[in-house]
Amino acid sequence: MHKREFLKKAATFGLTVPFAWDAFARSFDEVSNLGPAELASEDAFWENIRNNYLLTPEYINLESGYYCMLPEPLLEKYISHIHRVNREHSHYMRKSLNKEKKQIIDRLAIESGCSPDELAITRNTTESLDLVINGIHWKKGDEAVMALQDYGAMLNMFRLMEERYGITLRKVSLPNDPQSDDEIVDLYRSQINEKTKLLMVCHMVNITGQVLPVRKICDMAHGLGVQVMVDGAHSFAHVRTSVRDLDCDYYGTSLHKWLSAPLGNGLLYVKKERIPELWPLLAEDKKEPGDIKRLSHTGTTPVHTMMGIVDAIDHFHMIGAQRKTERLRYLQRYWSDRVRDLPKVIMNTPRDPDRSCAIANVGIEGIPPKQLAQSLMDEFNIWTVGIDRPGVKGCRITPNVYTTTSELEALVDAITKLSHG
Ligand SMILES: Cc1ncc(COP(=O)(O)O)c(C=O)c1O
Question: What is the CA angle 92-95-101, rounded to 5?
Fold first, then answer.
């Protein structure tokens, strides 16, 4: 089939045919000859994907940074898992759960580039990273390095360690438009000394979308004998992520963000040799010190949530990892390139396209972030979130695979009007 012909057909596919997973999967075969960069600007192709989401007509959703909604195919599968766990009850828990959990972990290990015995399923990034922060054997006087722009829950957990064990926290302030990787690496290096035990770094800063040079930071820190914990809440299934390539000691993410797994799914990676060094949060039955299961005991949980992970991975690969990254970056640049140099507009996201993907942050001189978010919603029907943090004052704008360029035109129009006062 000719490319244009397919794209036209694709645009109407979801509107005319009730959803079927297999048909949806087959529709991707037809574009297998097109490269990710070529597909990034093919709105008809992405319209086909959009048609699988039940989007509210009440506003334009540019707040996918909180979590990513499930498309209908994944929602249907998720509901079927709830039915199954309810129907099979304790028989499922006693006979099937462990086997299926192992299969899910095996798939996740492939996706994240590690060994299954270095990986645990958690409820979210907060649980994953707080488990590490709390699990380290801190001594009075130990130090940890992080950024003022890191996520609040982790900063709070470090504060607790400060109060409980007397550790010292050193915080860098990240520039919103760095000129080189070295600028960032040197910034973190400047806070390390012989007492430093752990460095926390975001793979993608959630409030600005900035992608940090994590591998280079890990190499620098390891050279100085410091462990690195990566907050990957926004990088997994968004930009290429392999924990082995990052060479970090710990990595945590929320699978309900960019993977679009059901709410309440997270992942924790702990480098093999670090596992015996951590205290668990909740005690597990006697296990070998190097067994990661020692760290992830939680009692009975809504296991159907976890069962949705493999479906989400399958769906992610149907779209294609590289295609998704290219489209998301295309969408961000589609609007940000149009407003970046307008008078009074302040972009809090790097100009260099390789330093961000879907997420960007925009402010307007003289308008507090909360008020800007309110105006976007009240006057233009655009849902975003206002961010007022050190060095970052503006609205976070997060499109997703279902976002159209005409929705982004509406955003550009709104920012242009608001910046003219
Ligand atoms: C950078 C970052 N870290 C951690 C989290 C916490 O994620 P969760 O609430 O899923 O635990 C978030 C949530 O948005 C985040 O953006």
Answer: 80
